[in-house]
């Protein structure tokens, strides 16, 4: 099954690369005026081809990236915490370390209770398939057959999930694809009025068909880019927006409240009583190259689990 899944993913990726070649190739092969402009203004063609290669690279980079699997994240957190405890044991002594563990465990438990709500526990957040605890915003993806941190959606065109580990890369990919699609559409429109184009009806019909497909793709990409930009600004995911009523953490929250776009309340205050609003998404999405845009809520949960919260 894994081999078939891998072959299916690579089939999709080869198809996407072939589509880019299909839409770009006819312009340079058949439009003689464009070839002449290439010799007169090589920088223009070089810039366009650079965008084509950059978009294809970003597509492959995003498709091959890790969306942020829960099992891997918990393993890394536990390994880091174990290393920290060993270092602390050597420097401070075992007795003092045990006392500091008790304080940390109490603090972690308090924060975890605040987040999950009264009466909640880690026991009812265990994925029956992966057999791991699911932090807030995570979800089991049936296509990947793994739990994904900050699950957004499964993208069939990428052949992978979009989540905590690659949402930034996905946003930049659709941004670059939108610019490329717009630029290519303009070049196709200019080709229709070009004197150097072939005069056959076959070429004219092919250009019209490709242009219509490009405009349809451009409309879809613009809407997709605007939608995910909105998710970034409000620090939401597609899954949370569509399935909000089915998510346990959102059941007692008004629909106009976006809990992940606000500052974490201090320990001891009422649930969801916020001190200030801050759109974490914009600052982190465009500012971190690794694409890991984690709110303080998620960081707190992961640290609490690693430090031994019940």
Automatic annotation (TrEMBL):
Q: Which family does it belong to?
A: Belongs to the DHHC palmitoyltransferase family.
Which EC number(s) does the record attach to this protein?
A: 2.3.1.225
Classification via InterPro entries = Palmitoyltrfase_DHHC (IPR001594), PFA4/ZDH16/20/ERF2-like (IPR039859)
User: What keyword terms does UniProt attach to this protein?
Assistant: Acyltransferase, Lipoprotein, Membrane, Palmitate, Transferase, Transmembrane, Transmembrane helix
Any one GO biological process: protein targeting to membrane
The record's domain comment reads: The DHHC domain is required for palmitoyltransferase activity.
Q: Output this protein's name.
A: S-acyltransferase
Q: Which source organism?
A: Adiantum capillus-veneris (Maidenhair fern)
| UniProt GO cellular component terms | endoplasmic reticulum; Golgi apparatus
Catalytic activity reported: L-cysteinyl-[protein] + hexadecanoyl-CoA = S-hexadecanoyl-L-cysteinyl-[protein] + CoA
Q: Which PROSITE patterns match?
A: DHHC (PS50216)
Superkingdom of this protein's organism:
Eukaryota
Q: Name one GO molecular function term.
A: protein-cysteine S-palmitoyltransferase activity
**Domain annotation Palmitoyltransferase DHHC: ranges:** 123-243
- What is the first-listed, main subcellular location in coarse terms? membrane
**Transmembrane intervals:** 12-30, 42-61, 170-190, 202-227
Membrane-related topology note? Multi-pass membrane protein
Q: Where in the cell is it found?
A: Endomembrane system
